[in-house]
Amino acid sequence: MQIVHQTNLPGRKSLGCLTFFFVQDELKLPPGVPEPLRDAMSRAFTLRVFTGKKDQSTVVLPAGGSAERLMLVGLGEGKDLNRELWRRAAGSAGKALASMNIAEAGVWLASPPGGRSKSPQGEDIAEGIMLGSYTFTTYKEKKKGKDKEEERELKRVTLFDPRKITTRDAVAKGVTRGEAVCLARTLGNHPANVMTPTRLAEEARAISKKRGLTCKVMEKKEMEAKGFGMLLGVSRGSRQPPKLITMEYRAAKPKGTLVFVGKGITFDSGGISLKPGQAMDEMKFDMCGAAAVLGAMDAIGTIKPPVNVIGIVPASENLPDGEATKPGDIHKSYSGMHVEILNTDAEGRLVVGDALAYGIERFKPDAVVDLATLTGACVIALGHYATGAITNNEAFQKNVVSAGEQSGDIVWPLPSFSEYEEGLKGKYGDLQNIASRDGGAITGGLFLKNFVGDVPWVHLDIAGTAWGVKRIGYIPNEGATGVGVRLLMDLASSWR
Ligand code: BES
Ligand code: MN
Ligand code: ZN
Fold this sequence. Notes:
By secondary structure, the protein is an alpha/beta fold. The chain folds into 2 domains: 2-140 and 150-166, Leucine Aminopeptidase, subunit E, domain 1 (3-Layer(aba) Sandwich); 178-493, Aminopeptidase, CATH 3.40.630.10. 32% of the residues lie in helices and 18% in strands. It contains 13 helices and 18 strands. The strands form 3 sheets. Strands 7, 8, 9, 10, 11, 14, 15, 16 and 18 form a 9-stranded mixed β-sheet that branches. A 6-stranded mixed β-sheet has the order 1-6-5-2-4-3. The radius of gyration is 24 Å and the shape is elongated. The structure holds ligand BES, manganese (II) ion (MN) and zinc ion. Ligand BES binds at residues 268, 286, 343, 345-348, 373-377, 379, 434, 440, 463.
């Protein structure tokens, strides 16, 4: 899908739909809207078919003119309006446009009277529309044929900006953000028989090539030589070889180095500690941390932040097999610590732990963020709106939280008190991979702390936010959300 910014008015060619945004009860027609579109709109206002309240979107049919449909989208009260609400409203519009069976749509940009919002609407609207109109149809045969109605896909949305409210650059920024998030969603949505560790590595290579990043993929042999015992332990039960993917962005004048680690379990059956069957299919999403890192690296190659950024993805399947790791097995981690596996389903912390130790040793970063669909307990604690955070550095965590706030990827700190680490002490090894069930999102996160040393680090548990998030305008009703991409972009670009 393409988004175009244009400062002249819609031409004579008819659009499938032309979209307008309105602040609640401030329903003034923007100047320059031609008849008979004006007429259809003002009727919708006087009959109060449309009032502009939040989340309202109403389609009206003008009697001819340059649009087959008009869509009126409500922004809610002007005093509440902010960038996130713009993105959500644009997202709802995008969702509606994508389901209209039209190829071309338009959005009329106008300062909402009384809205007073000086928000750079172009970026937010472009981002919201990109995200809202996202669909994943790779495995749907297009319904084509004579007797069936032709299925049109939304190809282009033109932003009409006669009063130059925004700029081409702002729109391009929003598109970059939107595309990177959509890329992460698509990586997440592919089934596990397609999105294997090998495929994930291929995707990383392709992104790196396109954006001028360096990409290296470590194979099993080298992992064995270097002692990635936890990652190798997880992959033992799988016929798919594990991969350790590294993507490097180098800034021209770097203000430091950031490392982003994403959990890349392309399918998590639980291994020998097998999960129950219900909803096990959703464990194809267990690589959404990896997807966020790949999406962010894609955007970072474009926006070129003033800091080096290294993306690292430990990729593996977690399956049961005669060769699979068993409860009670002890593996030597990359860092040298021995870890007793008490539950093979707590595999994310093992692969992420090895990747963290490696990334910190190799790149000596100023700060590290890991993203992982780590625990079901985090979903119970926080539900599907906020991502949980664990840290060894409150000041850095503040940066991460505010990058989240700015971007829409909301983060909520979990208590990181070292008292919670007690249950992770090993009986036969240095550590064990689970504590009791209680506070599982916290102990899971704190397990990782053993592999980061003193480097400022934040762990983001995206188990609740990576898929299955409902009722937010720009988030799809189904499938992967692409959470984390925008947060990582904003963290990198605001680094100082
Ligand atoms: N990938 C899962 C976590 C998960 C579960 C995310 C459900 C989203 C929805 C992770 O590998 C896992 O299985 N964690 C275990 C840890 C437990 C064995 C300590 C869990 O949460 O049950
Ligand atoms: Mn698991
Ligand atoms: Zn997992």
